[in-house]
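yo

u said u wanted the structure for the complex thing, so here. seqs first:
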Amino acid sequence: MKKITCIVCPKGCEMTVNQQNGKIIVTGNSCKRGEKFAVDEMLHPTRTLQSTVKTIYKQMPRISVKTNNVIPKDKIFKVMNEIAKVNVKNKLKNGDVIIKDVLNLGVDVISTVDMNLYIN
Amino acid sequence: MEQYDVGIIGSGPAGLAAAIEIEKNGLSQIIIERENRPGGILKQCIHDGFGLHRFKERLSGPEYAERFLTEVINKKIPIYKNTFVTEIKKDKDGFVLTLVNSDKSIFETHVKALILANGCRERTAKQVFIHGTRPSGVYTAGTAQYFVNISGYLPCKKCVILGSGDIGLIMARRLTLEGAEVCGVYEAKSMPSGLTRNIAQCLNDFDIPLHLSSTVTKIHGNERVEAVTVQKVDGHFNPIDGTEEVIECDGLILSVGLIPENELAKSLGVQMDYHTKGPIVNQRLMTNVKGVFSCGNALHVNDLVDYVSESAEIAARGAVKHIKKQDREEQINVLFDDSKFLYIVPQKINIKDLDEDIIFYFRSKEIVKDAVVKIKAGDVEIFKRKYPSIKPPEMECACLNIKDIDFSTENQITFEMKI
Ligand SMILES: Cc1cc2nc3c(=O)[nH]c(=O)nc-3n(C[C@H](O)[C@H](O)[C@H](O)COP(=O)(O)OP(=O)(O)OC[C@H]3O[C@@H](n4cnc5c(N)ncnc54)[C@H](O)[C@@H]3O)c2cc1C
Ligand code: SF4
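structre next:
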């Protein structure tokens, strides 16, 4: 038996996961998304990652970024190392790719801000 | 003097949403923002989880703000940036704002209605009792967040977090990701004040311990934080002798709560609610000073930005009605048992101005399972809903359909909670 807090929405349902005859049984979830999260969490936990990267612009020395899909939980710090190497040299829009297919995970690191709205 | 129908103070998610709603109604307006970038606190909230209700997407703070900011820019709604409001004076048909910025130095603007969307501020070290001097290395969680996410500067290498508010939890994760060591989160209460999901994804994911019924009682170090003493507390929050533990660190991050920013409101004579620490308002979110509206975190501290935007739109529609002089007034109080509820907003109902369903925002005082919340007008039940689980950190809503309800000054509105 394992207790898992669902992090899919702010409700944060506290779920219990039991394994019976190789089947995963989830209780305590208020919706289907919780069940999927619990099963994933048992088999291959993933997270989306948000961070910031350096830029060359004085008015905006950092911009916010995220992975455009989930990455394995145990790759979080490895992806952070890649993010630390970046220095943005042009004005990016929201969704622009900053690192394509980071660490061959099939996921891109993208900008979450439109720099043109803030820098003239 | 410049003249506008509406003046909006603050360009966070509340100010921006209010502006878009005012624009839909064709009134003139000006947004006043003291910082050089609009977007409010969301600029530094780079984590996701914003906008789940409104957009059914998990957006980061900057993305959520941008959806509104782009519209404000496209509609050419004017924003005075880097501009401070130094004084607000009431005159016969509105308010005279004295503004200061570097382009125009000191100038005056007249508005017919005012929307206060100026957010909240963090409680600081001054408001919590800790022994020792105040060396550098003591930051509020929001300040630490600004340093890391906006300036790109790591304020400490090894820290202790005092208080389990959401910003503190989010910063525990953020500092860990950036390579700092977070020794633990210490919370004087016996339950965490942040959302359960943040305990899970910010602390548990990174094996950061949460110490409940514990606090920081001393800061060591003269110029820079060198260590802190943590201690267990009893049921009355008094430190228990013999439980002291000294933790070496170079930073103490405070996440001990937010309070609505209400200096401007007070200067106008707006009455405050000691439960919310924000203004007392009616369902249009208008304060006792006619023409002054409050929304977002300036009204009460919200945990979800979706409700911030919603409240701003309600306030904006209220301002439109006020300017069109369609608002007659006869107000009744909304009463509640403060052993069950922390607060309820709005605190008053204007029964002469009923053409929209009324949205109530409330928080319970305790964690309650299977609570039934009822609203009564006099003795008559006008709303009933079952909430499977309500907790103080999670604000709840009740949308009251006003059709067929007999609102009158004889019938006070009361909130009840049955467990
Ligand atoms: C650190 C943090 C983390 C959060 N995390 C989440 C989350 O994960 N999910 C979620 O949904 N919500 C979250 N929230 C809540 C949500 O972001 C806030 O409730 C929301 O930003 C409040 O919006 P606002 O417009 O009322 O205030 P703010 O965003 O604070 O904006 C107020 C604006 O007013 C300006 N201002 C203030 N005083 C003056 C003045 N006198 N003159 C001119 N301008 C002035 C300020 O500069 C600021 O730009 C978080 C909040 C904080 C603080
Ligand atoms: S189970 Fe559903 S309702 Fe509960 S937290 Fe997860 S997504 Fe939200």
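The helical segments of chain B are 13-24, 52-55, 61-74, 141-151, 166-177, 196-203, 263-267, 305-323. The domain at 124-256 of chain B is CATH 3.50.50.60 (FAD/NAD(P)-binding domain).
cya
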